[in-house]
Amino acid sequence: MVAADGVDAPVEGAANGYRGDAAVTDGFELAGVPDAFQRLWTPHRLAYIKGGQDQVSSEETCPFCRAPRLSDEESLIVHRGTHAFVLLNLFPYNAGHLLVVPYRHVPDYTDIDEAETAEVAALTQTAMRVLRRVSHPTGFNLGMNQGATGGAGIAAHLHQHVVPRWGGDGNFLPIIAQTKAITQTLGEVRAQVAEAWPPRGDDAAPPEPVS
Asked: Is 79 known to sit in a ligand binding site?
């Protein structure tokens, strides 16, 4: 809104929305015109976007190597296997976005041996079964991004994505605003998935029938 003298006039209510810091300075509302959009402020993602690859220079700085040394709750681990483990993605595309990770710090799918390959595959299948029981997705995205140019957020340590999908979960937010609305906290999802995970040694068991 522009006043008669050509100076931008304060807009009533323009500074009422949370934007991550103070919206009123020295008694004056900041510039802006209200619209119909709500904003999800996610400044924590900036470190991941700007420096994810550079931060992992060795096993000592690798979050996938560090995770098994922490408690399951701290590291978001839902299952620990013999050669690989399963944990929630800290930056999920959807609630229940899991990562299947070998313990060994290797970057490429061709670097893991037969036992590791078999367990990663079995844990991926179990992850799908568990997510179907817990949250009833209608589809999945599975994949490994190989190398930084292949889209891997942490290229130095191999990991397989298991992303549950529902009809209508891809809307304008990720496309236009690069923002994803997640319906549950990571702690809630970790507890649900860990509780539903089959006992160790029974990872490949079929799901219980749904009544």
From this structure: no
Structural domain including 97 reads 59-196
Residue-by-residue DSSP string for 33-59: ---S------TTHHHHHHHHHHH-SSG
Is 36 a domain residue?
no
Phi (first) and psi of residue 141, to 5 degrees: -115, 125
Residue 83 among known ligand-binding residues:
no
Which of 200, 186, 184, 181 minimizes the C-alpha distance to 76? 186
pLDDT digits (tens, 9 = 90+) for 52-109: 556 677 888 899 999 999 999 999 999 999 999 999 998 888 888 999 999 999 999 9
Q: Report the amino acid identity of residue 140.
A: F
Q: Contact at 8 Å (CB) between 67 and 75? A: yes
The token duo for 70 is 């922490």
The residues assigned a catalytic role are: 159
- Contacts for 7 with CB less than 8 Å, ≥ 6 apart: none
What total of structural domains would you count in the chain? 1
In a domain, 108, yes or no: yes
Task: Indicate whether 16 belongs to any domain.
Answer: no
Residue 68: HSE in the Cβ half-sphere, 13 Å Cα cutoff = 18
The Cα angle at residue 151 between residues 147 and 155, in degrees rounded to 5: 35
pTM of the model: 0.66
- 211 to 63, 131, 195: CA distances (angstroms): 40, 17, 19
CATH number of the domain within which 100 lies: 3.30.428.10
194 membership: H or E segment, kind and range: helix 186-196
